[in-house]
Recover the amino acids of this structure.
């Protein structure tokens, strides 16, 4: 959601803040702002819209903070943009304060006037009121009043080389560079700026004094920490259209190869043993990651003959799930910071379950929480819509499923070795992009569309529909192909697009029948399938490279990702920054 950064650097602090903010923009782009302290005074620049709007001469100062906003309390506007200022303090905040209404009422009664609609302004007012000359103590005192999630970075006019930060349930890490100290919401945003990073845990504070980074308790006691070297800076290229999403689709084969290399070197024994002996297996995730988890659940339960319960994390955490000691929870999250997924994982752990996490960010909160962290090596995913991380999640989860089967039956499933061909199959899927782009052109003005599939193809259909909704702003729904005539068929009229994914020999004819039923009622039908003999079963046919049926979701989603991206571009939108959305949903 929002992105925060704090930086101390005697040279180019303002420029460094802007560089990081630009990389944080995928967390929110409703507004942006920075504050620096110099000569005993704060200078603030903040604006509705993108970071690029913060143009102008650099602000002076060696200590500064910055923010990109994804609005939660109050519309996107200059006033609601961070940093917020009270007395000698400026603050940036990511998270949601749950007791902000009570605190605001109390502060208002005490004569405070608010200049924004945000919950965050309450925090800086509390800090200003608590200040008796001790910067750190004022922040700690204010934090003791807060309920909810927050990662904050605070500046004080009296301390021109200091930044005080605190964290509860919103991501934050500290980073050390040459002559510079940082705090930030994200590791990828710090790439190129720092050489060492260390995550901040809930309840901890970070006190930056010059280049020195001190982790402390609320009482100010120093906490010993080990910083890890940050991996080499990843390139974040753009595609021919100028979009990162397009480039990220192109990186799928590379990500799969890297992920497979990592998985092959990993000792799965503890995770597979836990899964094999589990009373119950659950998965939790959100959005795209949930689709990957659903495909995994279906595969594992079929291959290992174990029931797997897959739930959206937001439902799991409030649904009093049946999970307990002896059960396994598999949590899937590209960022490893999604609030609902994290809370679901915490709940499962608190009840004694074994936690396996699949994340794309090694140091993420979810990875650190897990008993068995698994990695996808998709590389940094900047575009808001998840693409390459999804393919890598599927690969990782299928690998895990195969290991579980091995530990249960002393033999790998027949499709296991074909995981090594997934990258090449995805690369071959690129060759159908010109057909897919012409399909996007054909459907450019469609106002709605349905995606259908059977078995695991229904999860690919759901993922295709999600991509179209989120970036092309076309109402797109998905349903199991067999469910079409139980309701959705009523939507079909002349030209209504129905897009089917059919990758299993056992059911392709059934899906073709569903398309025929839609066609008979005027639908414009599309079929994505490796079975070329079905080319005549739809108005549009996209041939898919073949992998064993259980692995087909890895490759069949690729043309759907490309279709959504092209549809978005043709409709004149930016695929990297869909309206109302942000990468890494760190608030509930
Ligand atoms: C869709 C998309 C979102 C994320 C979801 C979970 O393209 O990107 O649906 O998949 O917000 O995010 P992570 O995987 O970071 O937990």
């Amino acid at each position: 959601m929002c992105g925060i950064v704090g930086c101390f650097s005697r040279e180019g602090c303002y420029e460094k803040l802007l560089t990081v903010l630009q990389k944080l923009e995928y967390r929110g782009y409703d507004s942006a702002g920075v504050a620096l302290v110099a000569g005993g005074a704060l200078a603030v620049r903040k604006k509705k819209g993108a970071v690029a709007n913060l143009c102008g001469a650099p602000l002076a100062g060696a200590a500064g903070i910055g923010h990109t906003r994804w609005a939660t309390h109050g519309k996107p506007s200059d006033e609601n943009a961070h940093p917020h200022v009270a007395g000698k303090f400026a603050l940036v905040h990511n998270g949601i304060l749950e007791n902000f209404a009570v605190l605001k009422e109390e502060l208002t009664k005490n004569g405070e006037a608010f200049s924004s609609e945000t919950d965050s302004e309450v925090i800086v007012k509390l800090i200003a009121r608590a200040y008796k000359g001790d910067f750190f103590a004022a922040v700690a005192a204010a934090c003791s009043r807060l309920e909810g999630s927050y990662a904050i970075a605070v500046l004080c006019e009296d301390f021109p080389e200091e930044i005080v930060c605190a964290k509860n349930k919103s991501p934050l890490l500290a980073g050390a560079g040459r002559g510079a100290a940082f705090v930030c919401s994200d590791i990828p945003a710090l790439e190129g700026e720092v050489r060492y990073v260390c995550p901040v845990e809930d309840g901890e504070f970070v006190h930056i004094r010059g280049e020195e980074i001190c982790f402390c308790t609320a009482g100010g006691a120093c906490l010993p920490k080990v910083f890890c070297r940050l991996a080499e800076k990843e390139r974040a290229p753009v595609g021919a259209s100028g979009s990162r999403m397009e480039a990220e689709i192109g990186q799928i084969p590379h990500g799969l190869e890297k992920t497979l290399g990592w998985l092959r070197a990993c000792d799965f024994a503890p995770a597979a043993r836990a899964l094999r002996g589990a009373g119950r297996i659950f998965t939790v995730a959100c959005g795209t990651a949930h689709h990957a988890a659903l495909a995994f659940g279906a595969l594992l339960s079929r291959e290992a003959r174990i029931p797997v319960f897959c739930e959206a994390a937001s439902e799991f955490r409030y649904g009093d799930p049946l999970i307990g000691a002896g059960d396994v929870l598999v949590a899937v999250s590209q960022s490893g910071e999604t609030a609902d997924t994290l809370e679901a994982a915490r709940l499962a752990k608190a009840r004694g379950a074994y936690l396996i996490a699949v994340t794309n960010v090694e140091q993420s909160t979810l990875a650190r929480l897990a008993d068995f962290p698994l990695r996808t090596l998709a590389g940094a995913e900047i575009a808001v819509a998840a693409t390459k991380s999804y393919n890598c999640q599927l690969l990782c989860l299928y690998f895990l499923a195969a290991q579980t089967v091995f530990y249960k039956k002393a033999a790998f499933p027949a499709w296991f070795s074909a995981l090594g061909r997934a990258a090449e199959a995805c690369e071959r899927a690129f060759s159908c992009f010109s057909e897919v782009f012409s399909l996007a052109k054909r459907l450019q003005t469609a106002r709605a569309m349905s995606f259908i599939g059977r078995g695991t193809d229904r999860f690919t259909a759901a993922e295709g529909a999600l991509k179209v909704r989120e970036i092309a702003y076309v109402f797109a729904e998905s349903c199991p192909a067999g469910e079409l005539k139980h309701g959705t068929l009523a939507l079909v009229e002349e030209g209504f697009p129905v897009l089917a994914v059919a990758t299993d020999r056992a059911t392709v004819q059934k899906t073709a029948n569903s398309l025929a039923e839609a066609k008979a009622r005027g639908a414009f039908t599309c079929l994505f399938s490796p079975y070329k003999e079905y080319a005549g079963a739809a108005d549009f046919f996209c041939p898919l490279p073949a992998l064993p049926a259980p692995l087909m979701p890895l490759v069949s989603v690729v043309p759907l990702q490309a279709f959504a991206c092209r549809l978005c571009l043709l409709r004149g939108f930016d695929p990297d920054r869909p309206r109302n959305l942000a990468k890494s949903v760190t608030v509930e």
